[in-house]
Amino acid sequence: MPPRPSSAPTRIALVAFPGIRAFDVSVITEVWGVDRTDRGVPLFDLRRTAADQAPIPLRGGLSLSPDRPLAWLAGADLIVVPGLDDHLTPAPAPVLDALRRAHSRGTPIAALCGGAFTLAQAGLLDGRRAVTHWNLTDLLRTHHPQVTVVPDALFLQDDNVWTSAGTAAGIDLCLHLVRTAHGAEAAAAIARSMVTAPFRTGTQAQFIEHPTPHTDRDADTLAAVRAFALTHLAEPHTVADLAARAGMSPRSFARHFQATTGTTPLRWLITQRIAAAQKLLERTDLPLPEVARRTGFGSEITMRQHFATHLATSPRDYRLAFHHTPGQPEVDTSRPHP
To answer: The pTM is what?
Structure first.
């Protein structure tokens, strides 16, 4: 079951040392370092931890001032490691030691983009699956052959260690970690303030350099089909039905859909239905069968199976963990997340 929200601030540790990327520092700070309690987001206590308190230079004439020693990691609820400007930059030994100790305590550790190289240096990815920017996968395999590098995921976790692909996928991972710990509404509120999608489906395969596999017209058609599915989420949809709406054969539709979104039509649809169900469970007192009906699962049993597979919890336990104060207006789930 996801952790129950707490009134105490969630303690987030940003691990800093020379060579980390300014962009990733900014992403971490934007997600966890801004007070959005007026919008229903939990209070976070984000600290910049380092081996010493000397200012750390960042690319572009910027600098970061640590405000806590590495010992602060012992009480952190989550540790986040930024990516690197030079992906082979060796992390200081005290940083690597602190990360190993934190992992042995069971603290979740997340690395953005090339931060996977730092976790690999610490040995935390040995024998585990990890992802990094698609252009760095061969480099990670070469220098850390004991790591199982997944080439096309946006982010993934293995044994409480999270890694993500490049740049925007770091935002995806940070929002996912908020969603997992505090619910879909908290993540959506942060995403809205950042003017970004609460989550993206698919893999980074859609961003790898290759010839465009379809025309602009096909892309517009597929976008229109996705919009139709989202506004009719409660209705049953088959690949054949959606393909007919796009004027394609099912096989051609599935191929173009995956090339555009990085996932299959049915997986995309399940993800949208789960997101809509999460909102209803958080913001309404609708019975579970009605939640399942409105979000297109058809039955509570089917919805429960998908929650178990994708969220490792049940709809009932999710509602217990993240239900908001009764009396709040019901949210509109007709257009979950394009």
So the answer is: 0.70
Report the SS3 class of residue 262. coil
pLDDT tens digits, residue range 285-326? 999 999 999 999 999 999 999 999 888 889 999 898 888 654
Q: Quick count: other Cβ atoms within 10 Å of Cβ 149?
A: 21
d(CA 36, CA 202): 29
Classify 312 in phi/psi space as left (phi over 0), alpha (psi -120 to 50) or beta: left
Give the long-range contacts of residues 27-34, CB within 8 A, separation 24 or more.
27/112, 27/170, 27/171, 27/174, 28/80, 28/82, 28/112, 28/174, 30/194, 31/171, 31/174, 31/175, 31/178, 31/190, 31/194, 32/80, 32/174, 32/178, 34/193
298, burial (CB in 10 Å: exposed 0-12, middle 13-18, buried 19+): middle
The single residue listed with the structure tokens 């010992």 is 71
* 30 pLDDT tier (thresholds 50, 70, 90): very high
CA–CA gap between residue 22 and residue 58 (Å, rounded): 6
Task: State both tokens at 15.
Answer: 């691990």
